[in-house]
Amino acid sequence: MRTSALALLVAAAGTHVAAQTTTAPAGPTVSITPGGVDTGLRGNATVVTNNPAGKVYKATLPKDAFFKAAYPEGGNIEGSFVAVASQNGTGVNFKIKLSNLPKTGGPFMYHLHVQPVPENGNCTATLAHHDPFIRGEASLCNKAYPETCQVGDLSGKYGDIPLGSDTWEAEYTDAYASTLEGIGAFFGNRSIVVHYANKTRITCASFKLEVDGSGGAAPPKDDEECTSAGHAHPTGASNSTVAPTGGRPTPPAPSAPAPTAAGSNLRASGAAVVAFAAAIMFML
Ligand SMILES: *[C@@H]1O[C@H](CO)[C@@H](O)[C@H](O)[C@H]1NC(C)=O
Ligand SMILES: *[C@@H]1O[C@H](CO)[C@@H](O)[C@H](O)[C@H]1NC(C)=O
Ligand SMILES: *[C@@H]1O[C@H](CO)[C@@H](O)[C@H](O)[C@H]1NC(C)=O
Ligand SMILES: *[C@@H]1O[C@H](CO)[C@@H](O)[C@H](O)[C@H]1NC(C)=O
Ligand SMILES: *[C@@H]1O[C@H](CO)[C@@H](O)[C@H](O)[C@H]1NC(C)=O
Ligand SMILES: *[C@@H]1O[C@H](CO)[C@@H](O)[C@H](O)[C@H]1NC(C)=O
Could you say which ligand is closest to the alpha carbon of residue 132? Predict the structure, then answer.
């Protein structure tokens, strides 16, 4: 599947060049726009507007690098990637703090990867970039059109980690990566990988649920104001090798009983606000 998807992308890239003089044959679902931005096989990434309030995911880099040659005397890049939904549920705020960065081989790229890191710390086993819309690697991410980038290509969208500094911090809100369990863009069960400029994997860490802000009263999932019904949320995109289903995305399985009265709605959102505040305190 992956091979054929890649082949498609490569073929599409070829037709793009050809399109300047001739008419490109209409590709099945891939389109490459005149601006040079790629659209995923499943379309552009959709903005997720119902990320759950209060949940905090954190990936903390391990003590030792996966690529041992990066730190011949032991050690690793130190720091973490903390992710929490915007208070209004639209987008996820990332806070990144790193130190002891390598002195060579930069600028460094970092991405969300499909699989979590196994016990033995094997960064290769995290497989490909988290790419639920199957955008592929045929061209670089165009920062001006983040919806056309792989959901997991955070450094592509927000910039590489520069070479020449021991420490680096960044904070931004990404509209496409999601902390909502059940949709393809969910990354809470996946990982982050930091690469050299030549793509060699230096280190990686799985995301862990650090604060479960739901407090037993999960925000309503089928509230009309909170859902992004109408947006395509590819599901089952646990890896980037799945073929597009073409069909309707399956809705996330309900994980909490829907509140039945306005009162419980209020209680739920009250709890969410408290949990969010707790999450902020936690991060400070
Ligand atoms: C994807 O986004 C790009 C940039 O905004 C746009 O040119 C292109 O038409 C979009 N593709 C689809 C299928 O919406
Ligand atoms: C949600 O909050 C973010 C800031 O956290 C803001 O940039 C965005 O415009 C808000 N979106 C809506 C729909 O209110
Ligand atoms: C990638 O770059 C690093 C740092 O310069 C180097 O140690 C490593 O050997 C390179 N990997 C490949 C495959 O060239
Ligand atoms: C690491 O993962 C890759 C990909 O799954 C696998 O091919 C390799 O054998 C693994 N290495 C170790 C030491 O587990
Ligand atoms: C992660 O969660 C998504 C959505 O809930 C699911 O489709 C995917 O299979 C999960 N991936 C892993 C590696 O557990
Ligand atoms: C990738 O997804 C496909 C389709 O959902 C599934 O058949 C396959 O087992 C998955 N592979 C991995 C490594 O999760």
Answer: 5
